[in-house]
Amino acid sequence: MRRRRKNQGDEAEVDMTPMLDIVFIMLIFFIVTATFLDETGVDLTQPPPPPDTPDNPQPKPAITVYVDGKNFCSVDGERSECDRVPLRVERLLADKPGANIILKIHEAASHNNLVFMKDSFDESGLQSKLEIIKETAS
After folding, report:
1. pTM to 2 decimals?
2. Backbone angles phi, psi at 7, to 5 degrees
3. Where are the domains of the chain?
4. Side by side, which strands form the sheet with 73-75?
């Protein structure tokens, strides 16, 4: 038995031209309507050099409050009652604005004085540095 061959003229071919036209039109549309990100790079400019300052800038003035082992208080070397120390410090701050407050307390002094002075400075919004002085053997 012989098989019959179909006519090769009956085969239909698909024309790809219209599909390619549509693809190119869509490609152009997406390229035109796309928004590209404007990415910024790293700024490589160097900062300006620091201004010339003297080698020894003026240190901030300091107000020293000292409480000795017998609970006697002094402000900048002048004797004062311990309950009046915060008032004296505020008066001295009027003469020395921005001064640091150094609170030196002997280790044998009463803790009540330490707490009172530190609390009164903190309530007034004043920053103070605390230094506890150990007893030296002589």
Report:
1. 0.52
2. -70, 135
3. 62-133
4. 78-80, 73-75, 62-67, 100-106, 128-133
